[in-house]
Amino acid sequence: VMIESMAAGRPVVSVNAGAASEIICDNNNGILINHNEHWMFAKVIEQLKSDKKLYYKLSKNGRSAVRDRFGIDKYYKNINYLHQGNSEIDNLGLACSLNKNISIKKIQDNK
């Protein structure tokens, strides 16, 4: 659902668990919340409602990430790579180098 939401241009807020950290680059194309800070969801959603610049940044970057990492061109490249006898697909660009533990204070400071 994260990828589909990002493709639709919606900012994504998720618990930092499972594949979320592989899909979302925190405060770049979505926001990751620590699993023990569920109360942060409400704060982040309120922040997104009031900070249109952040809302549009996450929306734009989310759509770009989906296109670049999961789009038809990437799919074709991986299928072609496998067809040529290679055993693993190209996963370059899946890891995020950004800080995964952003707080609402940091979000507010980035206005």
Can you walk me through this structure?
The chain is mostly helical and 111 residues long. Helix content is 52%, strand content 5%. The chain has helices spanning 2-7, 20-23, 40-50, 52-70, 72-83, 104-109, and strands at 13-15, 31-33. A two-stranded parallel sheet has the order 1-2. Strand 1 (13-15), helix 2 (20-23) and strand 2 form a beta-alpha-beta unit. Helix 4 packs parallel to helix 5 (72-83).
Structure summarized in a few sentences:
This protein has 111 residues and is mostly helical. It contains six helices and two strands.
Using only C-alpha atoms, the radius of gyration works out to 15 Å
Helix content: 40-55%
How far apart are the termini? 27 Å
Main beta sheet: strand number and arrangement?
2 strands, parallel
Counting copies of identical and different chains, the oligomeric state is single chain
Q: How large is the count of helical segments?
A: 6
Q: Per the principal axes of the C-alpha atoms, what is the gross shape? A: elongated
Main sheet: which strands, in order across? 1-2
Low-confidence stretches: 97-108
Overall mean pLDDT score?
Answer: 82
Tell me the total number of β-strands: 2
Structural class: mainly alpha
- Percentage of β-strand residues: 5-15%
Order of helices and strands: HEHEHHHH
Task: Spell out the blueprint of helices and strands.
Layout: H1 2-7, E1 13-15, H2 20-23, E2 31-33, H3 40-50, H4 52-70, H5 72-83, H6 104-109
Helix pairs in contact: 4-5
Could you name the key traits of this structure?
111 residues; two-stranded parallel sheet
